[in-house]
Amino acid sequence: IYKACVARIELDKIPTVGPSGILTSYIGAFRAFWHSREMILEGYDKYRGGAFKIPGLFRWTVVVGGKQMVDDLRKAKDDQISFMEAVGESIQAEHTMGREVHHDPYHIGIVRSALTRSLVERFPDVQDEIVTAFSEHIPATEEWTSVLALPTVMKIVCRTSNRLFVGLPLCRNPDYRSLNIEFTIYVMKAAHIINLFPNILKPIAGRVFTSVPASIKRATRHLRPIIEERLLQEEKHGKDWPEKPNDYITWLLDVAEGPQRTIRDLTLRVLALNFAAIHTTSMAFTQVLFDLAAYPYHVPALREEVEAVIKEEGLTKMSLHKMRKLDSFIKESQRLGGNGALSMERRMLQDFTFSDGTVVPKGHTVAVANLPMHLDEENYSDPDKFDGFRFAHLRDSEVEGFSKHQMVSLGLDYIVFGNGRHACPGRFFAVNELKALLAHVVLNYDVAFENNGGRPADRWYGHIRVPDPTVSVMFRKRRS
Ligand code: HEM
């Protein structure tokens, strides 16, 4: 009781946006449900560089802003703060992704190592899938053709990413594709439902009220024959059998042991990877398309850069690295259109003291106000303006050998991929894929909004941003 009282006193010291009384905070919680973005912007402005808290139905979130506090979180160790516990609760990972994935996320190490290492060798496959996917989903027509942006991009990104993860022909299978796209939505919906139940009933709620078990069955149908074949080859010829594919299933089997080698466990890891990769990358590329259509004056310089680099060295993972304007355009698009107002959610495993003396008691959740930081004049000049080549100009003034301003670099004021020990390990692939997608679009298409319309408003679900899925972008074969 004493410890709970001390924790309450520490929490009370952190200012609240909205009412903070035991009962009135529920009114704030309802406001936060619909308007958490506004509350985060308000708190950031009011308590600059400090912490504030916003209420939720079940708990407070302590929101921190300013580079110093981000740095404090970046440096914190895994026994002080936990990414898994915070995110695990938001998506009810134990009951949606499965206990195995939640408690033993060894596949994350694979994304950081084998997957990222494979990008040079596997780039031709990824590029081939981009070309084929575009020719099927957005054929280059002489006249303008209207394309529903987000759902179409989702299909292209899903098959392109899965060309790397599981290869041909599965990456093109329509049922496998829709299953992976839907899985993320099922998990988010399931998490909302499961969160309404007390802990003891959560496992039952997960099984009875959600579509997750059905998705696992559906994924197993596709993956079982592939996994069984791989296991058979391994049994016959040993670990390094000839023509062993260089893909995620191989990388998993290279390190998996005992129960990690079951069909169910391996299937869950494929679903978990798609969960992390598909919606994030698809939303990012949809925002890029919207920005391309809204600010078309960037297109000539982008084309010039892509063509010049390809002429010199062809299109490879390494040559994409030289396309700085392309990188900058995508980075700017995510600065203004990233997928939420909060990032770097962490659960405190012990009382945590920030450099400014703010104490967040054990068991509470902290997140970084990344949206206001991306819109802060102290971090970015003319912050509301979309300047596609902002980061390319900053890179021009960098000392050779430093690349602080390229998109994959983590920053204390650019938090699209988080920061610290749990920063997105998939960002090298994500940026590589986004650049290859954008290069393909500027080389082959003209892009515009219908009726010369401007950039559409995004949709917000609490602090999460989604590009409007009903918006179309027009494409035609490149003329100029
Ligand atoms: C534009 C696309 C993407 C965005 C914006 C994005 C963003 C993020 C963010 C914000 C985090 C949490 C970081 C933190 O809290 O510090 C994260 C984690 C993660 N991301 Fe990404 N991501 C993207 C694409 C991908 C892709 C393509 C993959 C896989 C190939 C991936 C795999 C992961 C994994 C496994 C984690 C968990 C890391 C951990 O637990 O340590 N992401 N991502």
Report on this model:
The chain is α+β, with helices and mostly antiparallel strands and 480 residues long. It folds into two domains: 1-96 and 342-376, Uridine Diphospho-n-acetylenolpyruvylglucosamine Reductase, domain 2; 97-339 and 377-412 and 416-477, Cytochrome p450, CATH 1.10.630. It contains 20 helices and twelve strands. The strands form four sheets. The chain has a five-stranded mixed sheet with strand order 1-2-8-5-3. A three-stranded antiparallel sheet has the order 4-12-9. The protein has a two-stranded antiparallel ribbon with strand order 6-7. The mean pLDDT is 93. It binds protoporphyrin IX containing FE.
Which properties best describe this structure?
5-stranded mixed beta sheet; alpha+beta; binds protoporphyrin IX containing FE; 480 residues; oxidoreductase; metal-binding; iron ion binding; heme; Cytochrome p450; 2 domains; Uridine Diphospho-n-acetylenolpyruvylglucosamine Reductase, domain 2; 3-stranded antiparallel beta sheet
Brief account:
By secondary structure, this protein is of the alpha+beta class. It has helices at residues 2-13, 24-46, 67-75, 83-90, 93-96, 99-103, 106-117, 119-137, 149-165, 174-195, 202-208, 212-237, 248-255, 263-294, 299-313, 317-320, 324-337, 370-374, 390-396, 427-444, and strands spanning 51-55, 60-64, 81-82, 145-148, 343-348, 352-353, 359-360, 365-368, 445-448, 459-461, 464-466, 472-477. The model has no long low-confidence stretch (mean pLDDT 93).
